[in-house]
Amino acid sequence: MITGKNYIGSQLKAAGTITLKTFNPLLNTENPWVFTEATEEEIEEAVALASQAFVRYKKCSGLEKAAFLNAIADEILALGDELLVQYCSESGFPKGRAEGERGRMIGQLRSFAEMLVEGSWVQATIDTAIPERQPAPKEDLRKMLVPLGPVVVFGSSNFPFAFSTAGGDTASALAAGCPVIVKSHSMHIGTGELVASAIIKAAQKTNMPEGVFSNLAGGGRTLGASLVKHPLVKAVGFTGSISGGRALCDLAAQRPEPIPVFAEMGSVNPVVLLPDALKENSQKWAAAYAGSITLGAGQFCTNPGLLLAVKGAALNEFAEELTTAIENTQPSCMLHASMQADFEEGILKREAQKGVSRVAQFKGEVPPNHGRATILKVSGEEFLKNKVLSQEVFGPFSILVECDNEAELVQVINTLEGQLTGTIIGAENELQHHQDIIFALQKRVGRLIFNGVPTGVEVCAAMLHGGPYPASSDSRFTAVGTHAVYRWVRPLSYQNWPDDLLPAELQNENPMQILRTIDHKLTRSKI
Which residues form the Aldehyde dehydrogenase domain (predicted)? Predict the structure, then answer.
């Protein structure tokens, strides 16, 4: 039996009273492993250890934290195929997907380590004193970013590696200097346990403080609510549904000391299909979007769930090509039987709406828990009347909205909620003639794509994975890339502080040789 918690120095003090099992959607059966849900005592112990660890961990140098993150990556790789088998058994994903997502998880950890070694991410800013200034002297002021404190990370259902135990939220929070408590997702507890064991080994090998990382298992919302409401927790990271993210935001706001919740939530990721591009190569774009809609059984937050275009022959040809591609795409296994059931229910609900018709659906036999790719169609007029049609269906699904003209298409975009992405498919010379569409999308999305697909989120500094609510709870930040670190820090300013007592990043000699802003100039110079 595997305990419901993992953290440095922990011993199983009392078995939990609630047992949990995970589900293998590909085999359509429960996995044999048994887990115990974390108790209130274990929650309290994990948070207390994290708070104690913060006292020391926030003082660790960038090099020390980088060594820790690289050690985590090494220990995860050392788990080998055992981890991949566990991942596949709890997700239904094939081994290739497991290997790819593990690579992304490792890449994230190492990219944050590189950021820490370079060191300029702290945004050190110095305004030197001018004691002779009249009518009042100018004080010496130095500012940099410092960690918030213990962070709770909620593992996501659809990314057991990249957005879970050692995913982007955990990696960025540890890079910032914040201890992390992970609430493991109930669909892949075993995968989380294995990754957690690697993190713990890495922490011990690099002499990190006890409690710098914890992993707690729980099936319902009680565990998550207890963690968010705990007074020693200072921030929350979440990837999941709008209802789940909003519930956490509300809990955090109601605390005596409100804390930030950085939630990445729902998105239908509208795609605008301009006529010239469809005339030039409708087959190319139909194949690309059939692949994007069905990738990973459609279980991506960037899945293109809304295709927008003006009526015409080019759109009709695209729809025919898309139908052929969808009907020839074999279904993939979804993450859980409950998700597949919700997916089917979502399709039926939308197909029952006024003016909605079916364009395409896979017609062959579908094994249990596999998603049958489906495309529906509706006019722009009916879409504007019905909010149900703009809500996300999690799975291989999209709605084609046929607008009478560009003005109606822009109106459709303007009525959408905030989105992670917005895409324009067009010939390059078309863009200058459709500025209203571009401007409308800019107001609604976090990432604006030209002639591509929204699925596939590059992990780099320029990536923005977030967007206006409800795509994310704070559109100023990203959940992917090294800039994700800025969610877990706050600025702190030192006034007239003795140089030898300042953090190294702010000292006159600049011992870390980082880029700093000194008297309005970006430089690596000493003072």
Answer: 19-458
* Active site members: 264, 301
Beta strands, E only, 186-250: 213-217, 235-239
Express each pLDDT in 240-250 by its tens digit: 999 999 999 99
- Whose tokens are 């957690």? That residue is 196
The token duo for 112 is 């944050």
Q: What is the mean pLDDT of residues 139-161?
A: 97
Q: Give the residue from 37, 320, 402 showing the smallest Cα distance to 189.
A: 37
Q: How far apart are CA 278 and CA 301, in angstroms?
A: 26
Q: Tell me if 225 sits within 8 A of 38, measured CB to CB.
A: no
Concatenating the DSSP letter of every residue in 94-120 gives: -HHHHHHHHHHHHHHHHHHHHHHHH-G
* Pairing status of strand 180-184 against strand 213-217: parallel
Domains of the chain from N-terminus onward: 6-265+475-487 (3.40.605.10), 270-450 (3.40.309.10)
Averaged pLDDT, 106-116: 98
Per-residue pLDDT of 432-450, as tens digits, reads: 899 999 999 999 999 999 9
| CB 221 within 8 Å of CB 246 | no
